[in-house]
Design brief:
This protein has helices at 2-19, 99-113, 133-141; strands at 26-31, 49-58, 61-70, 73-79, 85-92, 116-126, 150-157, 165-171, 177-182. The protein has 193 residues and is α+β, with helices and mostly antiparallel strands.
Amino acid sequence: MKKYNTLALILLLFVSTLAVSQQKVEREHRIRKCQFPKFNTLLLTPESKELRFYQEIDTLGTTYTLKFKKDRLRYHFDLTEQGIPETTGFQIKEVDLPNETYTKIDTYLKKTFGKVAVRRILQQYPVQNPEEMEKTLKDTFQNLMLPHTTYEFMVTGKIQDQERSTYEIVFDTEGELQSFRMALPANYDHVLY
């Protein structure tokens, strides 16, 4: 009897740690320009079109995202509440990835999900030092392949017996997994019934 109590206690502790794990739950919604924090105007060029401002609220804090179109690419810049840049990047397609990297990523996705739908791929450049923002912007606009570049995949798939869900998966330049988390569904509060 004592053996089963010990086993039940270990199982209970294991399940409770899974329930309290630190998953970043976020929700992004569009905001007005006046609600957006003050930021460095170096981010924008005269060719920037379709400016959109977003606020992303999650368990770790608030992040602001500036999205725009320039030279047929869709760029995004993530900023803190104080207007300090965190990441820059743009949307890409599978053919824009290096072959070896894409092969590794594709193998991982098929092994994890079986059948998967890639909804969006972002090539990101983390801002390592805010004083070197001009260099990061230059790297972003020139589409340079650097060792610290990451690829964020937004995919929809089904893991084993779970329901079909949307996931955000980040890989490094070699195709190695950096982070994996479930994304919240889109916010449809504006729809009236």
